[in-house]
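User: Teach me something about this protein's shape.
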Amino acid sequence: MVKIALEPEWEAVFEANSYGFRRPRGCHDAIAAIFASVSQKPKWVLDADIAKCFDRISHNALLQKLNNTTPIRKKIREWLRAGVMDKQDYLPTREGTPQGGVISPLLANMALHGMEMEVRKVVPNNAVKQRELGVVRYADDFVIMHKDREVIEAAKEIVNKWLKGIGLELKPEKTRMAHTLEGKEPGLDFLGFNVRQYKVGKSRSGKTGKGFKTLIKPSTKSIKAHKEKLKTVVDNHKAAPQAALISKLNPIIRGWCNYHRTVVSKEIFGKLDRYLWEITWKWASGRHPNKTDAWITKKYWKAEGGRQWNFMDNKGAKLLLHSETEIVRHVKVKGTASPMDGNLVYWSKRLRKSPVISTRVLKLMNRQKGKCTHCGMLFKDGDKWEVDHILPKSLGGKDWYTNLQLLHDYCHHEKSRTDGSKGSRTRKRDRKAEEPDEVKVSRPVLKTSRAGDSLA
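Assistant: First, the predicted structure itself:
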């Protein structure tokens, strides 16, 4: 209830370039904002992380930002200072926000609110100079971008001084300054993506002839983590049936590809398919060391849809390929737009283009123009939905798109009580999820402020 009361108030003033833990903003909006800032001109970047952000936020600084003396402020103060029980020991909490608490992301966003406005003081307060300075924050990670190194160094000092006022500091080992085009290691890694510029001939750099191209790709660290996860699953299922292995691998492949499908990933998807073939071949040949390659191929790989090598069983369970994922560019959220602003049509349209929602749900959502066919209300980010069979399968309904519709979970429950369905219904939810390897989903994030969005 406290979160419901506070969130609309703070959403109205949060900084425009803060994206972490602000539904429906997310990682792809942060990456799009970085691209918008550096795509036209090489820049210096400060890629920084705040040390133990949510463990060290000053209680007094946070409570002062609440700016009221209502029972809400009193309740939050009690939560912050409630302490922690570790077995039989009581540990007082003199700083930080409750980890894992429902309201913790909002409190952390409130504490960090104002950092972007403070950084922007490093350049003159006019539209041109402000546009040259880019600031993007996702939770306790942030990036500052400008063409002059001196400005970046000055911004770093300003951030350090500002953070001390709320009991925080930068983490030196995760704070890096680099150039997007020049240097030994140009570019930056942020939220599982690598952003950098590549020198090209002027005839290959578009109409502007800049002599470089800005490309965003999955980061090396993210690719390595994905490979390790795939290999671990294969190694843990050496004796499992082929269908069981496929059922474990497919969600991992689908989730990783959906997260990275908005950038320049096609070549990397192809390389990952090659790696996937290598580990599945090793899995198959290890099960039958005395069989020929032809026998193994015939047993575990089938021809389908013009492709000769499909890892699938006789019942049709088929391993997904990374390269089958369509590249879909992400459109950044408007700078000051908020789900609290009442513009439901705008947010519904954005939801229907989300790169991290399953293809089946997106098809149904677009066919229904973003509305639940039972209650007629628009789907919003944060809603729980389920795919329903218009004619229940227990009554002969088929699993065809023409017999499917997307409903709110509560609408689905109500419809199932009266449509003659037999037995308990399966609650299958298609919800969007961000890449767990890179996104700090356990940490609270701040929301952005009204100060102009130079990247919008």
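Now, about its shape. Confidence is low (pLDDT under 50) at residues 426-456. The longest helix spans residues 266-287. If you'd like, I can walk through any region in more detail.
User: That's plenty for now, thanks!
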